[in-house]
Amino acid sequence: MPKKPKICDKIASTNPSNVQLLNHDKRLETSITFVRLENQHDDPEQTENWLTGNYALGYYTGIGRKFERVACGSEITLVVFGHAQAGKTTFVRAIRQLFLEGGDRIRVIPNAERYKLAGIGVMPFPEGDNRLPHIVSLVINASPEEEYVLDIIDPEYDNSNLPQAYMDSCDAAFFLIDARNCASLLSAHQIQRNLKSAEHNHVQSEMLMNIPSEESGQPRMLSAQFCETMTKKTTVREICAQRLDKNAMEEMLLSICARVHLVRRPSPPSSI
Questions:
Q1: How many angstroms separate the CA atoms of 265 and 190, rounded?
Q2: pLDDT in tens, 138-181
Q3: Any bridge partners for residue 106, and if so which?
Q4: Is 35 part of a structural domain of the chain?
Q5: Whole domain around residue 126: which residue ranges?
Q6: E-state strands within the chain
Q7: Residues contacting 265, CB < 8 A, separation 6+
Q8: Reported pTM
């Protein structure tokens, strides 16, 4: 079991009461209780000294092709890929709304506090500025001993190019298919194929189909069964971005975080 790092001096020096987000009881000693997860984004010069707080959490800058994951640490980055108008923004905003009030297992971190946890005392742009990446950050309690910081990214790109910057930055991906648009299946499948390359084979993913609500009266052109056939038996889960099920969403997020953790965990030395 990986040890849990203390909060870095740089963050603690700002205002401990403002950054103590992962423990509800403020009488407790200020610390980050999430589990340290090694990954390919870590700064090799800092990896051996992570207990001192270097890059405990990274952060993000830019949008579109200029998107970048900066000073990456033990956060889990999940990008929602999909065709234009597939419902990516609606889906990400709905996740935030689901867990905004917090709960026993998942709660939202406000953007300003998320940057403080990465050692950035002042956000580069004001809250809500379009120059900031579109992101929802969550603390996920996998168990009493393990917590994850999950950053869900709503990417900015068009259908004419592959979102390479986001593909290079993610640990996990949701491929969102629009049940009303056959072209969205091709877009999701194209990105999925590219993420299967050696460079991205660590990325854990789920294929989701965004179905219209009954109230909308919009027809659907695709079924989950048809998509599974087209994507070579990849399981496709149906969701309605406008009416997310909190329990189902919670289990899906917990599952994908556990899979990322398993991939990042160092392999035990083989016996000779």
A1: 28
A2: 999 888 878 889 999 999 887 777 788 999 999 999 999 998 88
A3: 140
A4: no
A5: 58-264
A6: 59-61, 68-70, 76-82, 106-109, 135-143, 146-153, 172-178, 204-210, 236-239
A7: 37
A8: 0.77
